[in-house]
Amino acid sequence: MKKILIVDDEPNIVMTLEYTFKKNNFEVFIARDGQEALEILRNQFPDVIILDVMMPMVDGYATLEQIKKDERLKHCKVIFLTAKNKEKDIEKGLSLGANLYMLKPFSVKKLVEQVQGLI
């Protein structure tokens, strides 16, 4: 079973994505901010991480920098899912090593297709 970590501080998005990915046979882990995500990633090695940028504690950019430093997480595909839509934000996310940068609002169906295309 493929594993996915959803990192977002918006409860409605988390609930929708958790339900959708469980329905698509993923083992789902949830974090509400970057710090919580990094704690989960000490013991879990998901295939895909869906990561918001604007979150309390540790933002998505700093979280991704930490993920990329961990040898055990090199295989993880990272998708930024964020409302930050300026060109410099997108460039920053991709330059830090994100595999995809998707904007909110988003299509759940399209996100599932993108995730399945990465793994």
TrEMBL record:
PANTHER family found in the cross-reference section: RESPONSE REGULATORY DOMAIN-CONTAINING PROTEIN (PTHR44591:SF3), STRESS RESPONSE REGULATOR PROTEIN 1 (PTHR44591)
Task: Establish whether keyword Transit peptide is in the entry.
Answer: no
Query: Known InterPro entries for this protein?
Result: Bact_response_regulator, CheY-like_superfamily, Sig_transdc_resp-reg_receiver
Entry's SMART domains?
REC
| 4-aspartylphosphate found at | 52
Q: Which residues form a coiled coil?
A: none
Source species, domain of life: Bacteria
The entry's protein name is Response regulator transcription factor
List, for all copies, the residue spans of the domain called Response regulatory: 3-119
* Keyword terms, alphabetized: Phosphoprotein
